[in-house]
From TrEMBL:
Domain Methyltransferase type: 39-132
Species of origin: Paenibacillus terricola
InterPro entries for this protein: Erg6_SMT_methyltransf, Methyltransf_11, SAM-dependent_MTases_sf
Protein name, entry field: Class I SAM-dependent methyltransferase
GO MF term (any one): methyltransferase activity
A Pfam family: Methyltransf_11
Keyword Transcription regulation among UniProt keywords: no
Length: 236
């Protein structure tokens, strides 16, 4: 089993830096108007997608992981929010050009090659649309050995520093863009997702328990260099 599969089976949707609390804070700062057409790219178990729908946004949510999508469909059904949920990869979005006012994504682009996803976000945004992208960022360049450790465990494609993220977005065709300050990763707090659907049997499997321990070890080893930024980028 790989780490993304483990997260899906654990029903851990908010596995991005800062978790769901950070998501709610960011959404509060942005202040979406009712009816805003939002694409939530990499929706996981649909927690953010349902939250945005609850605020009156018109939400389409995609994910490439089918287990995650089933959990997102379940959440939307139980909570009664009209979220459109689609199986898709951010590198090839099944939507026409200029469909959305906003693309909202957290800890997804780093798992792709980068520029293709950015081009797709730009393509599906309407003129004056905005991308909000919270991504894992590194305080300094990692060595090849360090990169390999993180790459092989988490399936990360890139471990970019803040200037490297800005360089990527600068080359992606957005009209203007900015990045928030770098925030070091804190240990995730248990924010008690009432609609989490978890496969409890996993905890009885030694290989799964070993993976959880490895995650904790990596988090602790890299805690001083690993953090996140929020990129805001405008299409004009
Ligand atoms: C940190 S989670 C996002 C959590 C979500 N925003 C929430 O509120 O629960 C990242 C998600 O991105 C998905 N993902 C990763 N790479 C992807 C890709 N290339 N295309 C679509 N989804 C992807 C993963 O399956 C995972 O569910």
């Amino acid at each position: 089993m790989d780490y993304p599969t483990l997260l899906a089976r654990l029903g851990e949707g908010s596995a991005h830096p800062g978790g769901f609390q950070a998501t709610k804070e960011l959404i509060g700062q942005i202040g979406f108007a009712r009816g805003t057409k939002v694409l939530e790219a990499g929706c996981g178990t649909g927690r953010t997608a349902c939250y945005l729908a609850g605020l009156g946004c018109d939400v389409t949510a995609i994910d490439r992981n089918k287990d995650m999508l089933l959990k997102a469909i379940h959440r939307a059904k139980i909570s009664g929010f009209p979220v459109r949920i689609v199986h898709a990869d951010v590198s090839s979005l099944p939507f026409p050009d200029e469909t959305f006012d906003v693309v909202f994504t957290e800890s997804v682009t780093a798992f792709t090659q980068g520029s293709t996803a950015m081009r797709e976000y730009l393509r599906v945004l309407k003129p004056q649309g905005v991308l909000y992208d919270r991504e894992l960022a590194f305080a300094r360049k990692l060595t090849a050995v360090q990169k390999k450790k993180l790459q092989s465990f988490y399936g990360l494609h890139h471990m970019r520093t803040v200037p490297e993220w800005l360089n990527l977005i600068g080359k992606s065709g957005f009209h203007h863009y900015s990045a928030s300050h770098f925030v070091q990763i804190k240990q995730p707090t248990n924010d008690n997702d009432p609609l989490r659907v978890m496969d409890h049997e996993l905890f009885t499997k030694p290989d799964v328990v070993a993976m959880m321990k490895q995650n904790e070890r990596l988090m602790s080893t890299f805690s001083n260099v690993m953090g996140s930024i929020v990129i805001t980028a405008w299409k004009v």
